[in-house]
Amino acid sequence: MLGATVRFAPVSVTPEKPASSGSGIEIELDGGVRVRVDGSVDEAALRRVLRALGR
Fold it and tell me: Which of 6, 34, 41, 50 sees the fewest Cβ atoms within 10 Å?
């Protein structure tokens, strides 16, 4: 298309997330609370979350 105006759309590039290893688990607690974690979960952080949830 000769004479057509070319326009560019703004984009943003984000880092790729690592591929899921499929080694995740879901923990279902009382009251319908669910905690999902994958193989790279920080164990100390998970303990703090569970403690905060009263488990």
Answer: 6
